[in-house]
């Protein structure tokens, strides 16, 4: 099983999970034209309907006739896919794709619920949100209302929260995703998460 990020930030998100026979996209907050030049997807999974995750959806549907799913347990080709609820300010889901490895994608969520923790602990490869650094968020050019929303249980995961959640993770590959341009950096995310969790991580930043 292989994973790739076409886009991973607060401005756009699009990820690819591939087996030898099946290609699954997660979110399409990126140029569908560029994506479809590189891969022929067998399905598109939507985590939630915020613009940075679906900005390319209408164009995508015009150029690709693959099925689109939202919060459904399904099987695509040789890959069973299981969903779990995230804790966000709109209906949102994460996905675990099971092939010769378990690949879990866990994006926008203000907290790690017990169900989410189970998926983290069972994953062989994990893509997980690490949206903001708590200190940088204090100085970000946001209203106090927005800062409170980001920090809430239905907002986003901080580097510290992600680090804590990864303490019991046994995945051989961990990718931090959905980093904010205004309140996080690659270095802060990687250093904080690795220090707290004791795990080695990579950062998707595109």
Broad shape? globular
Strand content: 25-35%
Estimated helix fraction: 25-40%
What count of domains describes the coordinates? 1
- What CATH architecture label applies? 4-Layer Sandwich
How would you explain this protein's 3D organization?
The protein is α/β, with parallel strands linked by helices and 206 residues long. The protein is built from eight helices and twelve strands. A seven-stranded mixed β-sheet has the order 6-7-8-9-10-11-12, covered by helices on one side. Helix 7 runs parallel beside helix 8. The mean pLDDT is 97.
In short:
The protein has one domain (2-203): Metallo-beta-lactamase, Chain A. 29% of the residues lie in helices and 28% in strands. It has helices at 32-38, 51-54, 57-63, 114-122, 134-138, 144-151, 159-165, 186-197; strands spanning 2-8, 13-18, 23-26, 43-46, 68-70, 74-76, 79-85, 93-98, 102-106, 125-129, 173-177, 202-203.
List keywords for this structure.
about 30% helix; about 30% strand; globular; Metallo-beta-lactamase, Chain A; alpha/beta; about 210 residues; 5-stranded mixed β-sheet; 12 strands; 7-stranded mixed β-sheet
How does the SSE layout of this entry go?
Blueprint: E1 2-8, E2 13-18, E3 23-26, H1 32-38, E4 43-46, H2 51-54, H3 57-63, E5 68-70, E6 74-76, E7 79-85, E8 93-98, E9 102-106, H4 114-122, E10 125-129, H5 134-138, H6 144-151, H7 159-165, E11 173-177, H8 186-197, E12 202-203
Parallel strand pairs: 3-4, 4-5, 9-10, 10-11, 11-12
Antiparallel strand pairs: 1-2, 2-3, 6-7, 7-8, 8-9
Helix pairs in contact: 7-8
